[in-house]
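Weekly structure sync, notes
Attendees: PL (lead), two postdocs, one rotation student
Agenda item 3: pending single-chain targets
PL asked that the sequence for the first pending target be pasted directly into the notes so everyone works from the same version. It is reproduced below exactly as submitted, 210 residues in total.
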Amino acid sequence: MGHLDSEPTDHLSKVDPVMCRLIEEIGPFSLKPKDRRSPFESLARAIAYQQLHDKAAESILKRFIALFPGRRFPRPDELLAMHMRSVRKAGFSRPKIMALRDLAIKTIDGTVPTSRMIRRLADEAIIERLIAVRGIGQWTIEMLLIFQLGRPDVLPVDDFGLRNGFRIAYRRPTMPTPKQLLQYGERWRPYRTAAAWYLWRAADRAKAGS
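Predicted structure, written out during the meeting:
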């Protein structure tokens, strides 16, 4: 193993022979969180991406941000002051506009924490607060915990790619249910994020046909 030693990969290799194999084949765990975005911006972008292809979501976001000249991303109060017809023209559906407005209101009232505050909150507390926002579900919050906040012990059991990666890596005939994945994943604590990352890689690799 040598150069692959790190706490997460060390632990996963010890507790799970399949993980050990995956780590040897895939290489070091290299997830770099993008923590420059505020929770408000991350969730607004997540709302844009719901049920859309990346390209479509990106162009809607571009048009949306263009409504706020000189801003890298609008603030919650600016979003609320913007005419909803303009936001609709940028390409957001009505339900998504309602979700964006709710997100802005809950950011202003403190339900959605600031970047500084969210760093001090436990995963469960973050989930509990953000799930209160219209249109934001558990999966979206788990993606935020992993990719924005770099939390080490998150296992998004509802994620299709993750469950598929498990099916492939563990050579199962069928997809595991979220509950089965959760139960199996107990052994990966406190590094379930790294385990998820390797399962995603396993699914990507199978898709690429290597």
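Discussion points:
- The two ends are 22 Å apart (CA to CA).
- Residues 39-147 form a domain with the Endonuclease III; domain 1 fold (CATH 1.10.340.30).
Action: rotation student to compare against the earlier draft before next sync.
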